[in-house]
Records
---
Amino acid sequence: MTIDIPEPQALGTPITHSAIFIVANVNPGSEAAEKVKGWCGDIAGLVRSVGKRVPSGNLSCICGFSSGAWDRLFDGPRPAALHDFREFGVEGRLAVSTPGDLLLHIRAEQMDLCFELATQLMSALDGAVTVTDEVQGFRYFDMRSIIGFVDGTENPVGRKAVDFTIVGDEDPSFSGGSYVLVQKYLHNMTAWNQLSVEAQEKVIGRTKLSDIELDDEAKPSNSHSALTTITKDGEEVKILRDNMPFGRPGAGEFGTYFIGYARSPEPLEQMLENMFVGKPPGNYDRLLDFSTAVTGTLFFVPSADLLDELAER
Ligand code: HEM
């Protein structure tokens, strides 16, 4: 049960039209580390300043820290389940682990708000970090991923979303926090578009136009939906996703920025194992024949209250 938890960061924000994802490393030296710590106390104020200008724009920002960054920046206890991202799969079909100390997940209805906040946040960091990846994501029609299927349908909502994503009594010093996995995927759209719609539906496990789940008899065991549906002690365990399409058609780049929040890294890792190694091993996610993970990093997202306090740690 999660009761009396500190205020989480803005995980519950309704899916927006635009997002910017920034992953950055903290530069060497104590000056950079101190700058980043102090900045933790500035984030909420900057979100207020930029967001107030367009109240209907729903601007929000979530900030996470990797295991290595946590140990380097903050004294005292550390989030119990935080560790470096572990790779899954085999050469040619690998959930790669790539460097990154900080994650910024900025969302708003309009890109100008995301852009302005990213600019202000980076300017406040004033050279203390080096950005390793930056992606601008957009909503694609009726919440479609770039491969044409509606994405996010089976996300938990309301109380369930909180129970599945927010740390509670199991780690009292970090209650109100969350774990988040990001992976940048590139799709081979030429190969994908050569499949018939029926074949694509068997890859995802849902119908394309109407987004209805295939019956158990029709849904292959190597479909994305079958392999990412997991249970623990007989109960389904969910994560909260807010994937965004991105790309550069002129360069032939078509991608999905995957972002998944959970109460512990365990369900995220279980899903990756099912997808990349397979369940049983070898029966891997068909979606990976058309999608390559080019980044992968795990972060802890402290509660909003703790984020503010971290400046003093
Ligand atoms: C190439 C990147 C990916 C794409 C394009 C993608 C797309 C989709 C689509 C279209 C659906 C069906 C609609 C829905 O319920 O949202 C889905 C479901 C889902 N995906 Fe992904 N996904 C990707 C990667 C991942 C990864 C890496 C994970 C987990 C680590 C994941 C976890 C899930 C889960 C839990 C569901 C819901 C399954 C269910 O309850 O039926 N996805 N995804």
---
Amino acid sequence: MKHLLQGIHKFQRIAFAPQKRLFTRLANKQSPAALFITCADSRVVPNLITQTQPGELFAVRNVGNIVPPYDLHHGESSAIEYALNNFDIKDVIVCGHSNCGAMQGLLAPESALDKLPATKAWLQHAKLTREIVQTNYAGLTPQEMLEVAIQENVLVQLEHLREHPSVKSGLAARRFNLHGWVYDIESGDVLIYDPTLGKFQSTTKQSSGRTRSNNTRSTLRSQKTSRKRKA
Ligand SMILES: [Zn+2]
């Protein structure tokens, strides 16, 4: 706790004070242009990855960046509905990440989650991901299996998202676009799903125009997850 309290003082001194005007502007109003749905994992920091300021991303976080079916009693349904009806959201992103513990749990034998009954029940919203991986990617190593599960889960959750009423109506009116991302913690790369190519593409390669050696795994994943889907 001491570490966190020291952090608050440091924030007030180093981050808040120089940006006083920003926080004064944000005090009574937010106008985020992106709805960012990602995992609760401590290593995923949306504003850091996208280099955005407070007020720019409306974030929804849970274990496994899951979008459960529309339900009046789900926090996710409320957050999605709230963001899309109150703000001029232009982009909705579902962002998975490398070495996701939720996806590891999803691929593990069911008994592995017996001590985490709430997590086991929650991951039922990703059971289609498990079925897709087991059906289409048999023969991969466990690490490769995890990597494709992370990508496939982003696509599955985008499909769930399309069924939410506020998303359906917004897409019909062309108010915003949906995007599937995977953040690679080790390399800092963000893979973005290209619905035309039917695979995730490295942003590092696109922006730098050259292939880095640590993109090998990204390339592997791009090749593995090649079934075409809408996004
Ligand atoms: Zn995760």
---
Amino acid sequence: MALSGPSYSVDLLTKTKGEMEGFLADESKLARTRELLEKKKEVLNEEQKKVLNLFERVFGCYIMESETAREFRALATRIEGKLEGDRNTLKLGAHLPNDKDDGTHFVEMSSVGLSGRMRVDPDERVRKACHESLDTIGDFVLGNGFPELIKTRNKFAKELGYEDYYDYKVTQAEGFGKKELFKILDGLETETRPLLESARANFAEAKGGQSALEPWNISYLMAGDVTTKLDPYFPFEKAVEQWGRSFSKMNISYRGATMDLDLLDRPNKYSNGFCHWPQPAWVKPDGEFQPALTHFTSLADPAAIGSGLIGLTTLMHEAGHAAHFANILQPSPLFSQERAPTSIPYAELQSMFLDSLVGDAAWRARYAKNRDGQPIPWDILQQDLEEKHPYQVFALRSMIAVPYFEKALYELPDDEVTVDRVNALARQVELDIQGGPSPRPLLSVPHILSDESSCYYHGYVLAEMAVQQTREFFLNKYGSLTDNPNIGPELAEKMWKPGNSEAFLDLVEQLTGKPLTSDDWVTTLCQPIDELLIEEKEAYQEACDGLGSGTVDDDVNLDMRIRLVDGDTVLADTDQEGSFLATCKRFEDYVVERFG
Ligand SMILES: [Zn+2]
């Protein structure tokens, strides 16, 4: 985290993490829970039973009641540790063409750097070289223990009675198995296959022929210049204020929580945005409510083009997680902790629903303004929709390719888990699901390596499905999402309050009134662009007409203390500044002064 002071060291982190895992994997706690459930059956009230049942589920996720399974698990952890260590030392980079002669020179870049360069560099030779480098990650992991890891994970899962490691992972996190998961995913796959085929054909036609579909050309040709045109309307220094205004108009309350936001990038900062809870929210036995304490970070670089929109979307996303976890009202903190058995799509649904608003014309009309306070013109929004909407299916197919690949990988018989076979399998799945080689080669996806994130990607797919169903539900019920005061209280009551005491699929059905299906997502993707433009233009116009009706001076009340920090430095604090807007102003001044 690049924080100074003796209380922030890798050793201490390892120590506290070990203590927490020790607590969760303590067999005597599981035994005591079962004893109470059994012996006191007659006298326990409903709430006590609910808490004990949850304890049993939580401890069950961390305790392994088989010696052999524990041995395989330990072996897998060792192989994984070595593989991740080796992967971190892998030097990536591309042989880029020289300016002055026909030769090349090597430039070192991370995988994120390579993908970024591939998206924006106008020289096709550069983009191709970047993609070739991404492709080498697969050979590296396959040559450094990945096949052994797959086999060991499978042995471990089978020892515990699961079909394979994928089945084990889904069942632990979601409470349903691999078969049920892929019934849902297969529906989505079948329904969007014809869309993919026509989108690929149209893309090739619109962008200069079959070469447009080369994996190093797709994202470059799709992005166009619209990112640059959008940029002035999403000034990074305004992001905190925009999030606060938008959430408070939706009546989202954080129930007295405290939140530290560490938004700016700095050297050696952990290289991924995240949100965590040193203090989960819960209701104590005497009825007193313990508000949450949340920390979250992102890697914003306000000087880069497009950073304002990315920063804002990240903020809406992570603050959405924070709103969710601040509103869990249950009789133990274990209902509101972020690890298993808390479901991944359950958590991601809340954050992805709230960050989806930033893409809506109504939201943009109201909040996207340049530094002179002028709202974003419609023609930029139109161009954005025209360039991206027809090809959204590419993102969906790239998302589902990961679970299909991992499913097939863990289903290979042991003697087929070889470098050549796994390589061929990855290429086969890219061809089947994405229609050709992927801009992000499957074997380069970082999630597939570590225990925590492998066999987990389906969480994003199910969450997006539920986001589309939730959007459709609220749109049908109220006609609009932006600034709708009903949305906060309704999500808090039906989605957030239960925490992990209820299953993800049940919660979606209870809120939207129907079981989770891919119908609404598919309908959104299939909507003809002309029709979408008419709808969005109307929403844009309506939101513009409503501007000026008191949105600027209204105070913002989220019922939380916010501290904007940069590592150890506190940039602004609601307790010091007195109000949310005064805190935003202080942050804004700091960013403008530092980044210009
Ligand atoms: Zn998230």
---
Amino acid sequence: MYDVIVIGGGPGGYAASIRSAQLNGKVALLEPAELGGTCVNRGCLPTKMWLKAARIKKTIEAGEMFGVKASIEKIDFSKIVERRNGIPTQIGMGMKSLCTNNGIELIAEKGVIKGPGKIEAGGKILETKSIIIATGTSLQFPDTPGLKDAALTTDEAIDLTEMPESILIVGDGPIEVEMATIFSTFGSVVTLVTPSPRILPLEDGDTGQRITKCLREQGVTIMPRAELKSITPAGEGFSASISGKTEETVEVEKVLVSSRKANTDLGLDAVGIKTGDDGYILVDDTLKTSAGNVYAIGDVAGGAMTSYGATAMGVTAAENAMGDSKSFDSKLVPRALYTFPEAASVGLTEEEADELDLDVEIGNCPMSINGVAMSYGEVEGNVKVIADAKLGQVLGVHIVGEHATEMIGGVAAALQLETTVDELAYTLSMHPTFSENIAMAAQDALNWALYLPSSR
Ligand SMILES: Cc1cc2nc3c(=O)[nH]c(=O)nc-3n(C[C@H](O)[C@H](O)[C@H](O)COP(=O)(O)OP(=O)(O)OC[C@H]3O[C@@H](n4cnc5c(N)ncnc54)[C@H](O)[C@@H]3O)c2cc1C
């Protein structure tokens, strides 16, 4: 009898397995494919390698500003593909050895729940006290007429050795926006279509606007409030019918498929696990499903839909499966975007604060006044701090600017520690760094930003 069986070896399931084993659990991890799941093999890391290559190209192009003149002879995409395959293999090996090191039984089989505490894997029935479901998501083809022939999935995009001349991207989240950045940097004509009024609808409105402006400057056409209706062959490529304010036709070589659905084909009915209308498994704040001693974490449970969100949920679910009763606070999961410039955030947006009718103080500090941002020629961006007007607690921080994805870690810790805007205003950063803007945005919320024009 196992203490915990974890189904799925992505970032969520891997973390849950290790934490359960650290707490002296007898643990089995079921993963029929590669350890690391979507994140390591088809998501976070492969796309970051492509974005790194794109960033190197941009850095070379910007060299002249510093008197460094260089020209790009060739971009060998097969080298990026080689790297994006090599690094996950290396990481997968490390993950396997850490499982062994923690005494986790790794079973390379699909898991199917057969009844309370019973899982079938490879024709055998395994018995366990608790189950943690961490099966993530897979690509889902929208049923747009004609899409199949024009489709390029995100899984295929990371293995391209030639860029399409033009690509239509449907969607408005981080994956679509990062893909637009990659394709446009490497020369594809990119059109981004979204039914929402703006891209990045889960981010603060200011972040959405700033990234929209940057993408447009990079040559991306963004069509908000628009829907892809159908695709028909046209010459060498395709003609995409888009309906928005007006009916439009866009000629493209490829259409990116990035939408995803929860992997729930694993016998949920055998124990009565409920899913929402969107197909994701419903959990309470301790990450328990509607069935006794069955937890669901990471992408399959919707919500955060980030690798580190899945990891943090894995830790909470493991501790609870081993006897604790901790709550998981999804509001403290930071979000990040590896665009040019980067963006990152944690906590409430201004729109969410408005919806909740909260009385807030807001402070801003633009990157254009930051010495190092000016020195590096990277002045695009801003730090925005949102704090409770009465209690002073920092409720949200939204950063657009280079190194935002690194800066947000410290800010997330501050929110976790329930830091007040006053405390944040007095924090110290090294000079010259982009992080100096965080304390100054907090000072701005308190009306004493040292290096911003006085509003008195
Ligand atoms: C293109 C792209 C870019 C992304 N970039 C980022 C990023 O930069 N940062 C970030 O934080 N997130 C990013 N994400 C999201 C991130 O990949 C996911 O949030 C994360 O992988 C979720 O982890 P998970 O453990 O819940 O699921 P997954 O990583 O999807 O892992 C689930 C695992 O379960 C296995 N499985 C499925 N069914 C069964 C079964 N019945 N039995 C056993 N095993 C099963 C699968 O084989 C898979 O390995 C990106 C995603 C994509 C697609």
